[in-house]
Amino acid sequence: MNALAANLVLAVIWAALTGDISSGSLLSGLVVGFFALWMVQPILGLDPLYFRRMYRSTRLAVFFLWELLKSSVEVAVEVLRPRGRARPAFVEMPLDVKSDLEIMLVANLISLTPGTLSLEVMPDRSTLIVHAMFGDDPDALVASMKNGLERMVKEAFE
Questions:
Q1: Phi first, then psi: what are they for 88, rounded to 5°?
Q2: How far is 111 from 153, CA to CA, in rounded Å?
Q3: Coil vs helix vs strand at 134
């Protein structure tokens, strides 16, 4: 049995033992099951790749939520400010991610972040065109997206 299947089974067992079959109980069962499997992974011979990917995926989710909060506040302040400082711009972001899933995830996470919108992936899949509300410094904006979301997505899929 692979680690994901074992983790799901442990989550269902946890929910059954607590007598609460809700999403919160299943989520807490997933967390408890993850740490239980992590502790016994050498004994069961489970693949450590599952644990690395789950850790990196969780880090990506937390990072995205933080970026979402920061950019939401920044856009809200800009909208409420009498004289805005927004300088919209189109920027070309070279892509280091190669698979369709990784490109889609980077593009969608950028679009979900307030103030930015992914417009197009070039046919050769090497560049993403992004519209940014705050495009004063395109190089800094591209560096921020590459060192942030794209790097985290790339790590999550390694």
A1: -60, 145
A2: 15
A3: strand
Query: Across-strand partners of 127?
Result: 94
Question: Domain-by-domain residue ranges, the chain?
Answer: 3-46, 50-156
Four-residue CA torsion sign, 72, 70, 27, 49? positive
Tokens of 156: 């999550």
Instruction: Give tens-digit pLDDT for 105-150.
Output: 999 999 998 989 999 999 999 999 999 998 888 899 999 999 999 9
Write the single-letter amino acid at 34.
F
User: What does pTM read for this prediction?
Assistant: 0.81
Structure tokens given for 141: 């904006």
Contact 128, 93 (CB under 8 A): yes
- For tokens 């990196």, what's the residue? 56
Beta bridge partners of 62: none
Tokens of 97: 């991610």
* Long-range CB contacts for residues 33-39, cutoff 8 Å, separation at least 24: 33/6, 33/7, 33/8, 33/9, 34/7, 36/10, 37/3, 37/6, 37/7, 37/10
Q: At what angle do helices 3-18 and 23-44 cross, to 10 degrees?
A: 130
Q: Which residues of the chain are under the pLDDT cut of 50?
A: none
